[in-house]
Amino acid sequence: MWTLNLNASLAQVERMRSVLSPEEIKRASYFKFEHLQHNYIVSRASLRLLLSVYSNVGPEEIHLRLHRKGKPYLLNDSSLHFNISDSNGICAYAFSRDAELGIDIEKIRDLPDIDQLIEKNLTTKEKKYFQKDPGNKLSRFFQFWTMKESYLKAIGEGMRLTPENLEFSLDDGDIKLLSANGAYDPSDWQFKGLSLEDNFTGTLTYLGKDTLIRELSLDLEL
Questions:
Q1: Considering the chain, what is the average pLDDT of its residues?
Q2: pLDDT score, position 221
Q3: Where are the beta strands (DSSP E) in the chain?
């Protein structure tokens, strides 16, 4: 797992733009604000650079495609599983040769409609965790949100299976999936809570209890 601060100089942004595909460059132009364009360029170029290292293919030669349900994969090397998430200038990447995975990070921030979001996206059992610790309503909501999103990204379902149809428990930091769409998922999914920086939270979803997770940071100067 790699984390990256997307804050970059104009020179760095231009240098990283050079490894993007024409389609990615076009997509960057769709962002209304310049800082969002720059964040997209840096995050996508860094993904290409990391994929290049793992697959031994030049970053300009990386070919990304989408599975039928929308999850990206590497056409050059389909055995390399990866996932990406970004929030408020921080980006996280996860890679594995063993099995599918999903990662989601979020900046803990004020949400005017937090009560409605809790009501809509969490189950009755999950809401009990808010009763135990009402003072940390925002951070707890984002914890549960990243659990659900990382799992949905790992199984490649996206929003086909909505967050309120997933139920998790969170006891003493131990994350467990209780049910998906009303049924138990027999897969050996594991969940690791992430604390990336102040006011950020996240979850990594992966397979295999004995999986070794290496946490690294990416430096734009490299």
A1: 91
A2: 66
A3: 2-5, 64-66, 72-74, 81-87, 90-96, 102-107, 166-171, 174-180, 189-194, 200-207, 216-217
